[in-house]
DNA sequence: CGACGGCTTGAGGTAAGTCAATCCACGTGG
DNA sequence: CCACGTGGATTGACTTACCTCAAGCCGTCG
């Protein structure tokens, strides 16, 4: 399998063969597996190495004083867990593996050197961070101004687009190993209400979701329900993309 | 008045006198005033210069298809409006002046050079971006898992801390020129309900808010109501800060 | 003085939450 | 191979936080 980190960044920039080789090398240098439901990073931890998701699914989350949990973002293959490594003293939130997940571990020092050597990498990292910001902003819009139905639809549609970009879909179907409770924690609602909302979307023929497989049966319809406007994902560059996969992601936006 | 941009960054790093002079020069090179309620940047716009808030107050926002507005962040003096300039094609949201606001305008080209020359600046920019991310994440927690009272309290307390850091408070009082409608759009609620929530906080003796002046009469109480945990603001460095102002900000966190 | 923007109040409605029971698929051990 | 336990999904009945609509108020400015 291709290096998903490089693949993601090549959405934005392009590397020379030499650079690509270097990235592959770095990624294969040290890897670590995390079982489902275990922390990759914990709030308060001091980190001095970067974690890049290679396979599986993870989530950024916080636990409140009263025990409630809020999931702030899902991390798919190619995503960097801890861009703050270079700068901040400690993690202000945790990252958990939702399914069995494999990460590449890159020491901060190595990363720093790499950024200096490969300027395209520095640019791609900045681009990734800017889109992370944009995704978080969109999530705030979701929570602040969309109702449960729109919010769930929006999240699912966004996930579809991101999985497509990562090349991890078959048609409009893909493995999305989250429980309804986790989805509820991501959308800021109750498991009970999330369940009823999903049922609605199913009844309308928009989605199917069984056995951790999410099938978007009516992408256009879902997009409409979600009031989805893709500009915040900044995927424009895929339009001039060379691969089959990113072309198809482009169709969705 | 000192250059608030440099001041903000010196929360994190320190500059030589020469570098400080250079920053001051850049900031004074070109400035622009924006009247209250006008856009500094608009969604869809292609930008090739950076805007740094010098005085006043601004907000990032989006307008939905149905006309509703969501404010995603407040920008205070020292904040950079458009870090995406270097990378993204166009704005995916707008930035509006809430009060009369003055910005420094820095051409992207100049900024790029500056970043290359002054490596402390590049680090500080990265730090600023990481804390912006953290603030957005906290806003998602607000919306997803806190009720109206906690959410408003949290927002107000955060604003207090940020104003303190910017050195713009007298005691625990400061000018916060937003209407209740804008506060409602930031907290994802109705103006009516926001009004009642503010009344509660007032009745409990936690805040006073008249004539655009916000007075936090019981910071400790407000912090408790907000379930506020300051770690996400990453202000630790202020503890070894040299100025009076940042010392006092440190007390709050 | 009148108009206007922003704040406040009241009455009633609804989306979403709470609590608690049931169901279902799956894995495990007797 | 079946009984059992367990984690997750589903359902129902009831409550509530927040919304909606609509009127009134208050200070400011022309």
Characterization of this structure:
The structure is a homodimer of 253-residue chains. The first copy, chain A, has 253 residues and is an alpha+beta fold. Chain A is built from nine helices and ten strands. The first copy, chain A, has helices at residues 4-9, 17-29, 108-117, 119-145, 148-165, 180-187, 191-203, 219-225, 244-252, and strands spanning 31-34, 39-41, 49-55, 58-63, 69-75, 94-97, 101-107, 173-175, 207-210, 213-216. Chain A has a four-stranded antiparallel sheet with strand order 2-6-4-5. In chain A, α5 crosses α7, α5 (148-165) crosses α8 (219-225) and α5 (148-165) packs antiparallel against α9. The first copy, chain A, is globular and about 50 Å long. The two termini of chain A are 26 Å apart. The model of chain A is unreliable at 238-245 (pLDDT under 50). At the A-B interface, β5 and α4 of A face β5 and α4 of B. The first copy, chain A, binds a DNA duplex (30 and 30 nucleotides) through residues 147-148, 179-181, 189-193, 195-196, 199.
């Amino acid at each position: 399998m291709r290096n998903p980190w490089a693949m993601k960044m090549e959405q934005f920039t392009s590397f020379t063969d030499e650079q690509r080789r270097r990235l592959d090398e770095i990624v294969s240098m040290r890897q670590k597996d995390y079982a489902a439901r275990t922390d990759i990073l914990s709030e308060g931890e001091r980190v001095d190495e970067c974690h890049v998701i290679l396979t599986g699914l993870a989530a950024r989350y916080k636990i409140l004083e009263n025990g409630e949990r809020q999931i702030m973002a899902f991390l798919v293959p190619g995503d960097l867990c801890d861009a703050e490594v270079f700068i901040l003293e400690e993690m202000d939130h945790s990252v958990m593996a939702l399914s069995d997940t494999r990460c590449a571990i890159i020491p901060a020092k190595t990363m720093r050197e790499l950024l200096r050597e490969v300027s395209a990498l520095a640019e791609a990292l900045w681009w990734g961070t800017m889109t992370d910001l944009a995704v978080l902003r969109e999530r705030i819009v979701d929570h602040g101004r969309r109702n449960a139905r729109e919010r769930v639809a929006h999240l699912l549609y966004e996930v579809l687009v991101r999985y497509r970009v990562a090349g991890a879909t078959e048609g409009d179907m893909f493995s999305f190993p989250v429980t309804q409770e986790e989805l509820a924690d991501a959308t800021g609602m109750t498991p009970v209400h999330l369940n009823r909302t999903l049922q609605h979307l199913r009844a309308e023929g928009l989605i199917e979701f069984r056995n951790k497989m999410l099938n978007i049966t009516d992408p256009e319809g879902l997009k409409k329900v979600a009031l989805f406007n893709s500009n915040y994902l900044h995927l424009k560059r895929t339009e001039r993309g060379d691969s089959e996969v990113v072309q198809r992601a482009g169709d969705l936006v």
